[in-house]
Amino acid sequence: MGSTLGVIGLGRIGAFHTDTLAQLPGVDGLVVTDERPDVTAAVAAKFGARAVEDAAAVFASGVDGVVIAAATPAHAPLILAAVDAGIPVFCEKPVAFTADESYQVVERLKSSTVPVQIGYNRRFDPAFVAARNAVVGGELGWLHTVRSTTLDPAPPPAEYVAASGGIFRDCSVHDFDIVRWVVGHEVTEVYAAGTNQGDSIFADHGDVDTATTTLTFENGTLGVVSNTRYNARGYDCRLEVHGSQDSVVAGWDANAPVRNLEPGIAFPDGPPHQFFMDRFTSAYRAELGAFLEVIAGTAPSPCTAADALEVAWIAEAATLSLSHHRPVQMSEVRR
After folding, report:
1. Are the C-beta atoms of 208 and 202 separated by less than 8 Å?
2. Where is the signal peptide (predicted)?
3. Three-class DSSP category at 274
């Protein structure tokens, strides 16, 4: 017998998750809600889901698990409410708007056995998984450098920038999570630089449109994370892992949004990736499939709230580093 899942928040990612869940084997039913009743009704009708008034109604409906895709400020209270109700949780990143709030949630969760999975989807992309397996299997020898890139094709709306918390908390966290996961060690030092050459909206909110962050891991590996809001060729998300014995890459497919200038070389020759949902469609499906295993009790959470908290601390360190123009030790920000 399959599971019935609730979905709270039916914006872009919430509606996308509902679509994915509706197609997953093992999902028998969906209960959905959004603060906009018309959106709730429309999504419910489209996917044959049950529409309810609010999150409390989802928790009371007898669902086996809940997917939280509401606005970031709602994440922490919804996670805790679901856990208090004994309902396994999948929540989009971040755990909470600030690292301190995330810390408080993680502290609360220490006394609970209800599983919580945070949505860092790159952990489920086949090539990224293969990169981690190569590291774990020792194929690369000892690691010296890992590079992660997230280049957005265009800036988000101004109202999003104003509420995002900055490029490190909003965008770079995906890179911070994947390099921490692939390297398998903790970051000890962070050094970030950033600039603004585009829309003044970023500077107006104390943010930058382009950033590079250098991470030093406890085992000596160096991480380089590159981000920008301006990559007109497309959505560029790649990973390189270099070791003493071998080097591997992820994200170098035919749709990589780069123009190769090597004479006689056509690769990459496909239409460039333009949108993160298209780039990571299989990863989103795999992470929700993994959540069904978490609900069934056949697998532990593949990305815990504690994992997400470590990423939040790295983002805090990067934000502080940019502001102070200096390297920041993780011990300065981590509680």
Report:
1. yes
2. none
3. coil
How many angstroms separate the CA atoms of 155 and 199, rounded? Answer: 9
Q: Which residues pair with 247 in a beta bridge?
A: 242
Q: Which residue, chain included where needed, has tokens 């996308």?
A: 16
Measured CA to CA, the distance from residue 292 to residue 64 in angstroms comes to: 9
236 close to 273: Cβ distance less than 8 angstroms: yes
pTM comes to 0.96
Question: pLDDT (tens digit, 0 to 9) for every residue of the chain, 335 residues total?
Answer: 789 999 999 999 999 999 999 999 999 999 999 999 999 999 999 999 999 999 999 999 999 999 999 999 999 999 999 999 999 999 999 999 999 999 999 999 999 999 999 999 999 999 999 999 999 999 999 999 999 999 999 999 999 898 889 999 999 999 999 999 999 999 999 999 999 999 999 999 999 999 999 999 999 999 999 999 999 999 999 999 999 999 999 999 999 999 999 999 999 999 999 999 899 999 999 999 999 999 999 999 999 999 999 999 999 999 999 999 999 999 999 98
**3-state SS class at 222:** strand
Answer whether 207's CB lies under 8 Å from 167's CB: yes
Backbone angle region of 9, left / alpha / beta, with phi > 0 → left and psi within -120 to 50 → alpha: left
